[in-house]
Write a structure and sequence with these properties.
Order of helices and strands: EHEHEHEEEHHHHHH
Helix content: 40-55%
Largest sheet: 6 strands, mixed
Oligomer: single chain
Strand content: 5-15%
Number of helices: 9
């Protein structure tokens, strides 16, 4: 016995969702047995059943009683690539698509871009026109998936807010530090200019000290960030991999922002008249 996710559908469902077949075919109205016997499975089902060699034509006895009676004997006619039908927190599970012998209570519709509201109004009108005794209720699939990640969205907003606040405070600190350094070393800068130092050489010296501070900060922050980010991403069965490029870009961005923030005081100090 295997626990499989059952997705009742009709003939057009695989085409509607754009499911990609890697073996076999989709449902066909001209094939009389498809209505009662055909089933389409995903790659996860193939692995769970151990059907790696040739899954097409395999049988699945579905919905039978404890004594072995009843149920439906289904034949695999197609295999689709795994697709996410639940949250990305979980791996894609074994799933079968079949045409049910009971009425469906959900209609899935693909809308043409730009005509969403007009189409909804039309369907609502026809729903009422045919005397449906239940209210017209609908939802969007993308919104449904978005709701699965509300906690991540809120967490992202919180982190973005505090990250922005941290950067702002850090820049204020750098501005204050650069102003203090320029004032404290004004005599040194004047002597260096008198002895022949160029503005570029003085700026390079001031910038080098700032870069060293940022590199020390990055050497502390990056290992901590790497540990906690990977720990958080482990909550998802499918997620992006954080590579060294991410940290390199972060470090270079930090250095660039730091240099821009200290440039005002550094350039004023380097261009000052040695006499003053």
């Amino acid at each position: 016995e295997y626990a499989l996710n059952l997705i009742p559908c009709d003939y057009d469902f695989p085409k509607l969702l754009g499911l990609e077949f890697i073996a076999g075919r989709t449902f066909n109205r001209d094939m009389g047995t498809d209505r009662t016997e055909a089933v389409i499975i995903n790659e996860a089902t193939v692995k769970a059943m151990g059907w790696d060699k040739n899954p097409i034509g395999k049988k699945i006895h579905f919905g039978f009683e404890l004594d072995g009676s009843g149920g439906r004997l289904l034949k695999v006619i197609g295999v689709v690539k795994d697709f996410n039908f639940i949250s990305l927190h979980n791996k894609v599970e074994p799933m079968i698509l079949f045409i049910p012998d009971f009425p469906s209570d959900i209609l899935t519709i693909r809308l043409k871009p730009g005509y969403t509201q007009a189409t909804i109004d039309y369907i609502s009108e026809k729903w009422t026109h045919f005397g449906a005794n239940r209210p017209f209720d609908y939802y969007f699939l993308d919104k449904d998936y978005e709701d699965k990640y509300q906690s991540e969205s809120k967490l992202g907003t919180v982190f973005a807010t505090f990250a922005g606040l941290s950067i702002f405070i850090a820049l204020l600190g750098l501005l204050g530090l650069s102003s203090f350094t320029a004032m404290q070393r004004s005599k040194e800068i004047g002597i260096r200019k008198v002895l022949g130092s160029s503005v570029e050489a003085i700026l390079l010296k001031l910038y080098r000290e700032t870069v060293i501070l940022v590199l020390i900060a990055c050497s502390i922050a990056i290992p901590v960030a790497h540990y906690f980010l990977n720990d958080w991403l482990d909550n998802f069965a499918y997620h992006a991999e954080i590579t060294w490029v991410t940290y390199l870009v972060s470090g270079l961005t930090s250095i660039t922002v730091a240099l821009i923030s200290v440039s005002f005081h550094a350039i004023n100090a380097a261009n000052a008249n040695p006499v003053n």
